[in-house]
Batch of 3 targets.
Target 1
Amino acid sequence: MSKPLLALLLLVCTATSQAASDVPNQIQSSVQACDACHSDQHNANSHTSSVAPVLNGMSDWYIEQQLANFQLGYRTGQGPDAERIQQAHSKEAISGDTLSLVADYYDELEHRFSDLTLSDTSNLNNGELLFEDKCANCHTSAFGRFLSDGPEITPLEAPYILQQLKAMQTEQRKFAEETKHHRKMVERLKDMSTQDLIDIVGYISKNAKSL
Ligand code: HEC
Ligand code: HEC
């Protein structure tokens, strides 16, 4: 084998082994467990009864906050797999330093914008009006998110967003530390029809990268 070819091969091997060892040793089994449902390699609809969002790029503080919400019973799994989902987020499955490391790991990965769409049709004009008036200030600018503790929602899967909006509207999804921002969002959702929610989600998923 020629020298340049050998050098290239070595480079490729090193790059591959680095990618494989990116997950710190002490959290490899946890990340494997989470990725069974949350991996960006899956079709989000194929592995549980409800959509597990891809965690890549999700803020570490938000991942930890949501795990606490599951563990304190403010969020629950939905559908026929509810128990399995609840178990996967329990204190026995993940807590303490392992949780912090897992949250840091996902935070540092690049966002993977979802291309999943809704099967229902949306009125994108209505979606835009509602989103810009009632949602954008807490979710799209970094400053708005900082003030409200709102997470980034644009990379999320459309069916997952709709599922969460319905859960928050009906108070199935609650908040361990309810703030005025949570109350404001839920109030706004309560004024909306299911079609309004579909329109908003359609608008978000069509324009995710520019919002
Ligand atoms: C059995 C499948 C499954 C496993 C395993 C699993 N999850 Fe989940 N996860 C889900 C589903 C489904 C949801 C959405 C639940 C809902 O409907 O609110 C979810 C939601 C979440 C959320 C909230 C995301 C958001 O945008 O609010 C976080 C954070 C999360 N999981 C982290 C983890 C971590 C960390 C692990 C590994 C320790 C893990 N999950 C393992 C299925 C799973
Ligand atoms: C006043 C600020 C505020 C407004 C307005 C607001 N939100 Fe939120 N939103 C939040 C906060 C804070 C959270 C975090 C919820 C939690 O702590 O569990 C959140 C969470 C969410 C989530 C869950 C994301 C996930 O990863 O699971 C979605 C989806 C969402 N908001 C969509 C919307 C939509 C659509 C609107 C407009 C109808 C809206 N929000 C209006 C502050 C706001």
Note: DSSP finds eleven helices and no strands in the chain.
Target 2
Amino acid sequence: MTIRWKYLIIAAILLPIIGFAFAWSGLMSVKASTGHWAVTDWVLHWMMRNSIATASLSRTPPPLDDPNLVAGAAGHFETGCAICHGSPAQLRPPSVMAMLPPPPDLKEVVPEWSDAQLFEIVKYGVRFTGMPAWPVQTRDDEVWSMVAFLRKLPDMNAQAYVKASGLHGLGTAGEVSPLPITCESCHAESRLNDESFIPRLVGQSEAYLLQALKDYHAGRRPSGFMQLAVATLPQDVLPDLVHYYATQQALPRTVTAFDPQLFEAGARLAQRGRSADKIPACLSCHDRTQANPAYPKLSGQNGAYLRRQLELFRQGLRGGGTAQHLMTSAAKNLNDADIAALSAFFGHRR
Ligand code: HEC
Ligand code: HEC
Ligand code: HEC
């Protein structure tokens, strides 16, 4: 028995030394050109599947069938993911196919994963493969939007994809726009509706819009969609961009159906607040005639966007400019019913 213990101890000391010597010798090849052996490839993917399956066990997906979830995610996919995975509108450069492992065509592999597993992959990325993590780790709603889009991707032809992403099709009518085509692909008024998760920019103050862009750029306001959109914009074009949106004439809008009781409950809270819960009157800051330009306009903003922002403020995750703490404390004690009522009120107030 004592002799066996001795061997074990010697092996425990020697093995790391041999391993280290092998790594130091340079004999271990790191060439991507020859690919993995079939067995290495199998083991790596087996480990990846196990890890993702285990990590996603405790995650329950929210409802993902709202078609509005797809809009921002499709645009983001075209600018942030298609370079590696390709898309119905974009072939990949050959250099990408020489990556090890090569990024798969997602149309083919998405059906193999559950929603919770896709969430895990998109949010955290995949180590040792080049698959990056979502740029913002503090909020999950954008990642779920991407999962909703990925579900739809296998059934999308090029035309449906171009329509969903808003890219490629723009500008063909000979319109001259001062905007980078990407802003309009998501924010063009004609692409939005009352339940969009993408905000309307038209009619907001220049000061507020400029502040928002700087906040996204600096990471003070977390959004993977907007971070990518502003990452490569030169700072000196921002004032022109916000001037365009602030001074644009809003398109005429039809009033969509709403629950009058919910609207009334929202109106009461917005006008009076609720002192028992330390909720201030929203209209004491927002949408006044001489309002501080740092307070965004809420009337007519899209309902789903308003809901999400209020949820983010309530959790302390929204971020923003130097005055955002006012809003974080205003939203702290809102309950779900308050948020539904306030979004219905401001979303349908013209
Ligand atoms: C720099 C290149 C690159 C970018 C950009 C990229 N990916 Fe990937 N992605 C990869 C690679 C490489 C893999 C791993 C392939 C493997 O080994 O299975 C992968 C894997 C995946 C998978 C799992 C598919 C499977 O079965 O392996 C999904 C889903 C995915 N990516 C979605 C996305 C989304 C959504 C985006 C954009 C937010 C994105 N990727 C951006 C390279 C990239
Ligand atoms: C892929 C879709 C997409 C693209 C492209 C995009 N945006 Fe956005 N934008 C969004 C979404 C989604 C939000 C809401 C993000 C959040 O939750 O903070 C947003 C928010 C904003 C806001 C904040 C509005 C508010 O009321 O607080 C501004 C300003 C803005 N975008 C301007 C731009 C400009 C300028 C461009 C072009 C450089 C652009 N966006 C490109 C999707 C997009
Ligand atoms: C003391 C002033 C103040 C009060 C009261 C206030 N807000 Fe705000 N609100 C702000 C400021 C400032 C911002 C901008 C934060 C930033 O982005 O820096 C804001 C932003 C928002 C936004 C985000 C809009 C967008 O375009 O992204 C929503 C939604 C909002 N407020 C709703 C409300 C509601 C609902 C109430 C009432 C419960 C309320 N606010 C009360 C000051 C206030």
Note: The two ends are 86 Å apart (CA to CA).
Target 3
Amino acid sequence: MSRTIPIDRFYGSLPNLLRKYEKYGRQDYFKGTTREQFLKWQKETRTLLTGLLGLDKMESCPLDPQVVERVELEDGIVREKVILQVEPECYMPVYILIPTGSGAKNRCFLAPPGHQGAGKYSVAGRWDIPAVADAIRRYNYDYGMMLAKAGYTAFCPDCRGFGERRDEGLRNDSESSFLNSTCYNLAHMAEAMGETVIGMCTWDLMRLIDYIYDRGQWDTRYLGCLGFSGGGMQTLWLSALDERVKLCVISGYLYGYRDSLLKLHGNCSCNYVPGLYEHLDMGDIASLIAPRPVLIQSCRDDHLNGERGLINVVEQLEIMRRAYQLFDREQFPLHDVREGDHCFHPDAVPQMIAQMEQFISEQS
Ligand SMILES: [Zn+2]
């Protein structure tokens, strides 16, 4: 005998929240028509987002870098492991893949990780760990290694809650705990403190750029950031807020908030910034990257695009395109559309990065 009774009608909150989204959402999108007005809006919007993300609560400190491991891999790639102090008593392990062969460039990329790949282990291509190898196969998750094989030094950090930065709840050696992250728990800890996971991750990547500048080994005029899924989210926010990123590749993370994170509300808590929807949609945030070169990669059947599929992506790209038009850069954002569900596709990426680098060198 059943211990419950069937419910034939539910009284949920979504219709009401959608109504409010229409009424109050996206109040601070760019409404001007000139480059000067855009630059003013860009500055003000960065200040607004700095507050919403809680970036103003982050505490600076000496990076105190410790190189704890140095391994020579095949293909002439050296993998260093460095621990950086990103805030006082808050440490970020980073794998740095450094090509040393004849194809090595003096250019570098940040390659932040997404969910379900054990943080830096999948991005840096740890095929020797079987659970990580499966995650790499599933999403082509080893994009840090892809970059290193193309000659770039790739910085593959554990973002907060991932890999060696897992918080108390997942500190055990089960495969599931190893692959997954505590960003969900971290959101609970952060938000009541006036912070956000996105703010923490953005801050940490800014500190990683500080470290790249300190080492002085790379040509920062071409400093790139590339990420898929949650790594795409971090690439979006970092590039929007830090102009030291000169070109970026965002895969599997560019769509309208209404369909993809309000109607679809089962995504991880690390996606959510209190108060954000009232101000901006995702395309507005991505517009802050203008006029720097950017490549967006989308999969046609990515369930995260929401019920309207690619339309929900293209609408946001149009918002971005209007910003780039003000700088006479209609060719951006580049858009690489692939078939299938949520996945990174390396195929055309190195060639499109070369195209963006060529554009930068022509401008300088
Ligand atoms: Zn998360």
Note: The chain has one domain: 41-115+142-153+191-363.
